[in-house]
Amino acid sequence: MQNWKDTAEKQGFELFNDGTGREASEKGFSAVTQDSVDYLTGLWTVSVEHTRNINEGVQILKNNSAGILKHLAGIENNTGNTNVRLQTIENNMSDVKNEVSAVRNGIDEINLHGITLKK
Question: Where do the domains of the chain lie?
Answer without folding.
Answer: 31-80, 81-119
